[in-house]
Design goal:
Helix content: 40-55%
Distance between the termini: 43 Å
Largest sheet: 9 strands, mixed
Strand content: 5-15%
Shape: globular
Strand order of the largest sheet: 3-2-1-4-5-7-6-8-9
Structural class: alpha/beta
Radius of gyration: 24 Å
């Protein structure tokens, strides 16, 4: 796994933050020139510009505000350039007619010959490879920056070294860096966090060693239980013998395994799981392209509150699939099972229900979804679709919606044009939210109750009363609810709930009702990022089933490591302690954690 060095990350951080400032400035200039903020259309616009202005105003209504539109245009403009260079530097930007890789220099030459923009050409080639991700018809990408604004972005992109685009973690870091200024602004404001602010404040790229440790000691352990002589054991450096696993509820074939990351961010866990599953399926003799197609289509699922992260995660999976041997010239990669859970329904209820086109059955479902998703940008994957009655199967519902939406658009209905995309997103998210999975793996958002806005705070208090003190502990409960009986959760969490008195009932409930398999105390500085300053963290593997009599929880303590690199090294050979799970005993706190938490006084 090739990852960025600290120096490379710092350089990328500076470039991306500068790109965001330039991209948002350029977007605002271009939108004001089109008169998007004005009620009356400027007289100097051409017919083509006037139509673009109309579509942008519809998009503004869907997003919520002019500032939201500025941010969206800036993101799309910069990231289509960024993604094109990722493809080009990996020799994966393919000419759709000649089916050969092209460089950005060659794209520029083609653009001059055709009288088009370099990035329009490059994005067009990328759209051929990933239809639906690079949407040429989107009004956000049709905005034309002023020459000086476009040149500023191109200069920043050109200044990023080639090697950065070949690192496996580079895409994830680009988005965390994109959010740096917004996070500082929200934190400095002191306001309660909800809506779009949640994305910025809680975004934190998961360290590679955390991803590998959790996956290798659950997904890897499952494989080695089935294939104890597998040579993959030598590749999984963090795998630990002696953990008391039970995989009896899991399927015996990787083709049947369903994995979910409900806070998938840029797809770090999903990409790592992709490589592990590909190695397993190859070991069974499956051809590479068939294996990749099956993994993307059947194994991996992701949810995320931030729609931009879903775009990055989709691109990350596709990029790794192509690099691993899936031909971008012979066949289309299946669309990854990823959905944004943070698309709020901004329409009035009667407008939203009109998308049903008079279909009573569809209208009933849309009414349920309206109540669930009206605050989606605050609640994200906490939304519980499984509690809703099923009025119609998913395939029929999507077909009915597509037909109704097409009819409404053909009549020129502005509601269908404005909120149709939201509808499609809600249906896809609802499908994944209602699913059940063998394995749930994630790094949860951290946000204490005192910092939560009223909508989020009230929801968590109602649906997660035991874990209400932090969104992280609410998410632990939510992850368990995504599991099939006997399924497993691997999760990165803050450690304070293990010992604070305010979490005692939460601890008791989990220790008595769930099987704890492996607990790692990382302590402070588990993340190699200033964005995580002061965070004390743990890694936890836990099963969605009652612990059997005599079950032993295994634990590691690497909290003495001075930084993330030292903790990663310690995980390779730290002594493992196993203790009887305390939920079966009289004291459900101290017995299970005594040898894993060094300060015994904190347990009282």
């Amino acid at each position: 796994m090739t990852v960025l060095t600290r120096e490379e990350r710092n350089a990328l951080d500076g470039a991306v933050q500068e790109a965001r400032r330039k991209a948002e400035g350029g977007a605002k200039n271009a939108l004001l020139a089109l008169g998007v903020r004005e009620e009356r259309k400027p007289a100097y616009l051409t017919a083509e510009q006037a139509e673009l202005r109309r579509r942008l105003r519809a998009e503004c209504r869907r997003l919520g505000s002019f500032d939201d539109l500025v941010r969206s245009v800036a993101y799309e403009q910069w990231h289509r350039m960024l993604f094109a260079r990722f493809l080009a530097e990996n020799r994966l930007l393919i000419h759709p007619e000649f089916k050969v890789p092209v460089t950005l220099a060659e794209c520029e030459e083609i653009a001059r010959e055709e009288g088009r923009d370099l990035w329009e050409v490059a994005a067009g080639y990328a759209a051929w490879m990933l239809p639906g991700l690079f949407r040429q018809e989107s009004p956000l990408t049709q905005v034309r920056y002023a020459t000086e604004d476009a040149a500023a972005l191109e200069a920043i992109l050109a200044g990023i070294p080639e090697e950065t685009f070949r690192a496996e973690d580079a895409l994830g870091w680009t988005y965390q860096f994109w959010q740096t200024e917004k996070k500082k602004e929200v934190n400095a404001s002191g306001r309660k966090v909800e809506g779009y602010d949640i994305c910025a404040v809680t975004q934190l790229f998961t360290e590679p060693y955390m991803v590998q440790f959790l996956l290798q000691n659950t997904l890897g352990a499952w494989w080695l239980r089935l294939h104890p002589e597998s040579p993959l054991r030598e590749e999984w450096r963090y795998y630990r013998e002696g953990v008391h696993h039970d995989f009896s509820a899991w399927p015996e074939s990787p083709a049947e395994l369903k994995i979910l990351d409900p806070c998938c961010g840029s797809g770090h866990f999903l990409v790592a799981a992709f490589h592990m599953l590909l190695a397993m399926r190859r070991e069974l003799g499956e051809e590479t392209e068939s294996a990749i197609r099956g993994i993307v289509r059947d194994n991996l699922h992701g949810l995320e509150i931030d729609p931009r992260c879903i775009q990055i995660a989709t691109f990350s999976i596709a990029l790794e699939a192509w690099k691993a041997g899936f031909s971008p010239t012979e066949s289309y990669l299946p669309v990854p099972n990823l959905a944004c859970t943070g698309i709020p329904i901004r329409a009035k209820k009667e407008e939203w229900l009109s998308l049903a086109g008079g279909d009573g059955l569809l209208e009933g479902v849309l009414e349920q979804y309206y109540d669930l998703f009206k605050n989606a940008d605050t609640l994200g994957s906490l939304i519980r679709v499984d509690n809703q009655p099923t009025l119609v199967d998913r395939a029929t519902l999507e077909k009915k919606f597509a037909q109704a939406l097409r009819r409404e658009k053909e009549t020129g209905d502005p509601v269908a044009e404005t909120f149709g995309e939201t509808g499609h997103g809600v249906l896809k998210a609802a499908g994944l939210l209602s699913g059940r999975y063998d394995y749930v793996v994630t790094n949860v958002p951290y946000l204490s109750g005192g910092s939560q806005g009223e909508i989020l705070k009230s929801f968590i208090e109602e649906h997660h009363p035991l874990g209400k003190n932090d969104i992280a502990t609410a998410f632990l409960e939510r992850c368990l609810s995504f599991c099939r009986p006997g399924g497993k959760v691997s999760i990165v969490l803050p450690q304070n709930w293990l010992f604070l008195v305010s979490y005692r009932r939460f601890r008791e409930h989990l220790l008595k009702n769930e099987r704890w398999d492996l607990l790692v105390r990382l302590g402070e500085k588990g993340f190699d990022s200033s964005a995580a300053a002061g965070a004390f963290t743990i890694l936890l593997n836990i099963s969605y089933t009652k612990p059997p009599e005599g079950h032993r929880l295994c634990g590691l303590d690497v909290s003495e490591g001075r930084d993330a690199a030292a903790k990663a090294r310690s995980l390779l050979d730290a002594e493992m302690t196993c203790v009887k799970q305390a939920g079966q005993l009289g004291n459900p706190d101290a017995r299970v954690l005594l040898e894993l938490i060094t300060n015994e006084d904190l347990l009282s």
